[in-house]
Design brief:
The complex is a heterodimer of chains A (65) and B (629). With 65 residues, chain A is mainly beta. Chain A is built from one helix and five strands. Chain A has a single domain, classed as Ubiquitin-like (UB roll) (Roll), CATH 3.10.20. Chain A has a five-stranded mixed sheet, with no helix packed on it. Chain A is globular. In chain A, 35% of the residues are buried. Chain B has 629 residues and is of the alpha+beta class. In chain B, the strands form six sheets. Chain B has a six-stranded mixed sheet, sandwiched between helices. Chain B folds into three domains: 212 residues, 4-Layer Sandwich (Aldehyde Ferredoxin Oxidoreductase,  A, domain 1), CATH 3.60.9.10; 201 residues, Orthogonal Bundle (Aldehyde Ferredoxin Oxidoreductase Protein, subunit A, domain 2), CATH 1.10.569.10; 126 residues, no CATH class. Chain B is 45% helix and 14% strand. The chains are: A mainly beta (65), B alpha+beta (629). Chains A and B meet through strand 4 and strand 5 of A and helix 10, helix 19 and helix 20 of B.
Chain lengths: 65, 629
């Protein structure tokens, strides 16, 4: 189980960060992510596959300059 | 592709110049190299560096930012400021960066011209800036026109002009302006290196009031669209142009909101997060804020913008071919969110005609418009509260700040007029308005001589002994963070509550991402693909993205090693933060126990909790940007 913003993520096991975000309806390009408290660069969204029990915090920055 | 970075060193005192070459690998762009040069010359010369990223002149849209670096006079530390589009013509000089040192004997224009393979011709020509600034159309616009008119014919291709205005002479927060030219005429899509006071630095430290540059040097820029399209297809299943078009929707036209640009989209989504009347609105309840937003912003200020600018498609680019067409105009007036926010609702101006006049006056004077608006709104509140009298500031009236009975047109016009008088007073140092050493120094002086209530109302970020910066106009904790560089987006500016330690980590992570963009000279409006693709592009072209990312992280760490952020000196900053947190809990229903714990801590010991919160952010920054061996 992977937790996204404190709740079980909809994406299946073995999914990349990008797939987890997309399954949750978030736009990866506009989303800032930490994995277990560590910032994840957008360039890693496609290759990083959070393990079981991982806690992902995803924050969309739609507004702003 | 380029394997060396060429820096043209120019000594304004002697007109001596030389080219120095740096290898790509240890150095990658204008930020890391600018930081290196600033540090190398520290104690001997103050230097102002401006240059492009390695991708300037390439087919990648948004890759032609002109990046300025150096010690900022207003921030009191190393700073990075970026100007849209101005790198495209700079690329024709055949150098990657100019590093300016020394001081011209009299106010001068720096002319940089290159004819094909010849050396860059460097000329310093004395001018009378006060006479030029006083001529039509005034200030920086007159300076740009004068310099273009005098020297453009000496260039084989249309050159570009960087100019400062009288704010650079009178204050520490003068900006640098540059407008693209079309068919020999200036356009109204002026671009700015606004933040950081580099206009003041250029003028006061180097005695340069304008730079004109251009050339015909052809270098080996990446122009292979078929190859780039293949990289984009592999990642996005789209060609480069299609992906860029999609990623820049917000800045062009977002059908979800029926508007476009930062002004349109931000005001369409603000709701109760509106900040008005020198942030006094953060102390109001939500119904009062949303009522003000609906009546004065949605139904008037934003409506005017949508009808006049968006519906009529008055939009341009910064000078490079770009689908974002982010310069939203109404005739000669260009509209961005943050200047039209600080010299808009923050000053009690909710009407486009009034905001246009006020913003135009500040722009012509050559101010960092965001900081100018923050200072004006603070002074207006001091007048409104009777802490200062009109004669103290060399003006004739008081602001009209009655939110409930506010007349969108008449009261906005009155407040804009007062704002323009205040600008004139700042430029002429009337009354107590000496901003030559900055607004923080003024706030300190007035708080000592006239009472602490004056300083309590000025929202700014403090850095080192006298450094200051009006924050970005987003009501969240990120905007007040103790980062080594503030006032731009080297921080997390999302609107959700993030516990401060985590916020510090996010800020640091965002700083690294933004540095990738700035060091490659990319416009952040293209970050929808550029942040993700940048390492791949570097890998494809230079074959060493790991080294590039290593340098970026080291640069972030080195900038942070000079982090001398100072705890908030204004009580209104604490109102700003506490108001944000209470709104999250009470209006948006955020049940995060950390949020509740912090609100209770602030209610029990306001100042103590604020210091704890500030240092928690700082811890998160330090633990992310410091390497523990």
């Amino acid at each position: 189980m992977i937790y996204l913003n404190g709740r079980p993520a909809a994406a299946r096991g073995g999914a990349t960060v990008r797939e987890i975000l997309k399954a949750a309806g978030l736009a990866p390009a506009l989303t800032v992510v930490t994995l277990d408290g560590v910032f994840v660069p957008p360039a890693d969204y496609r290759k990083l596959r959070p393990g079981d029990g991982a806690r992902l915090e995803a924050r969309e920055m739609r507004e702003g300059g | 592709m380029e394997k060396i970075i060429k820096v043209l060193h120019v000594d304004a005192g002697t007109a001596f110049y030389r080219v120095e070459r740096f290898p790509v690998g240890p150095f990658w762009g204008p930020v890391d190299l600018g930081l290196h040069l600033t540090g190398r010359e520290a104690g001997r010369h103050g230097v102002l560096n401006f240059g492009t990223g390695l991708l300037a002149g390439s087919i990648f849209p948004g890759s032609n930012r002109l990046i300025f670096t150096g010690h900022s006079p207003c921030w009191g530390g190393f700073y990075v400021s970026a100007m849209g589009g101005a790198g495209l013509i700079f690329d024709d000089l055949g150098v990657n960066m100019v590093s300016l040192r020394g001081r011209a004997p009299s106010p001068s224009v720096l002319v940089l011209n290159r004819d094909h393979g010849e050396e860059v011709q460097v000329e310093l020509a004395p001018v009378d800036p006060n006479k030029i600034w006083a001529s039509a159309p005034g200030g920086v616009y007159a300076m740009m026109d004068h310099v273009f008119g005098r020297w453009a014919r000496e260039f084989k291709q249309t050159p570009r002009v960087l100019a400062v205005g009288p704010a650079a002479a009178a204050t520490d927060f003068g900006a640098i302006a540059s407008a693209p030219y079309q068919d020999g005429k200036t356009t109204h899509a002026d671009c700015w290196a606004g933040r950081g006071g580099f206009g003041s630095k250029l003028y006061r430290e180097h005695n340069i009031c304008a730079v004109i540059y251009g050339g015909t040097c052809l270098d080996d820029d990446f122009r292979d669209r078929a190859v780039a399209d293949e990289w984009f297809r592999q990642r996005y299943e789209k060609k480069l142009a299609a992906k860029d078009f999609e990623a820049t929707t917000k800045y062009r036209f977002d059908p979800k909101f029926g508007t476009g640009g930062t002004f349109g989209v931000n005001y369409s989504t603000l709701g109760g997060r509106l900040m008005a009347f020198n942030y006094r609105s953060v102390l109001w309840d939500e119904p009062a804020r949303t009522a003000l937003n609906k009546r004065l912003v949605t139904d008037h200020y934003l409506k005017q913008f949508n009808e006049e600018t968006i519906a009529k498609k008055q939009q341009r680019t910064c000078g490079e071919p770009c689908p974002a067409v982010c310069k939203k105009l109404n005739g000669e007036f260009k509209k961005d969110y943050e200047p039209y926010q600080t010299m808009g609702p923050l000053c009690g101006v909710f009407d486009q005609r009034a905001a246009e006049k006020l913003n135009r006056r500040a722009d012509a004077a050559g101010f960092d418009a965001i900081s100018a608006g923050g200072v004006l709104s603070w002074l207006m509140e001091c007048l409104h509260e009777g802490l200062l009298r009109p004669e103290d500031l060399g003006v004739k009236s008081l602001p009209r700040w009655d939110a409930e009975r506010f007349d969108a047109v008449a009261d906005s016009a009155h407040n804009a007029e007062l704002g323009m008088e205040l600008i004139d007073s700042i430029l002429a140092s009337r009354g107590v308005l000496d901003l030559s050493l900055g607004a923080r120094k003024l706030a300190r002086r007035l708080s000592r001589s006239r009472g602490a209530e004056i300083g309590r109302r000025f929202v700014f970020l403090a850095n080192a002994r006298n450094g200051w910066m009006v924050p970005n106009q987003y009501w969240n904790a990120g905007a007040l963070s103790p980062m080594a560089i503030m006032g731009k987006y080297y921080m997390y500016y999302g609107f959700d509550f993030v516990p401060p330690r985590e916020l510090g980590r996010l800020n640091a992570g965002r700083m690294i991402q933004e540095l990738i963009m700035d060091d490659l000279g990319f416009c952040r409006f293209h970050r929808g693909w550029a942040e993700e693709m940048a390492p791949d592009i570097v890998q494809h072209i230079w074959g060493d993205s790991a080294r590039f990312l290593e340098v970026i992280k080291a640069t972030a760490g080195r900038i942070n090693s000079r982090n001398v952020a100072v705890f908030w000196e204004s009580d209104r900053n604490i109102d700003y933060l506490l108001g944000f947190m209470k709104r999250k809990r009470d209006v948006e229903g955020d049940k995060n126990p950390e949020l509740e714990r912090w609100i209770k801590a602030f209610e029990a010991d306001r100042r103590g909790a604020a210091i704890d919160f500030w240092f928690e952010i700082r811890k998160g920054i330090s633990e992310t940007l410091t390497t523990l061996y």
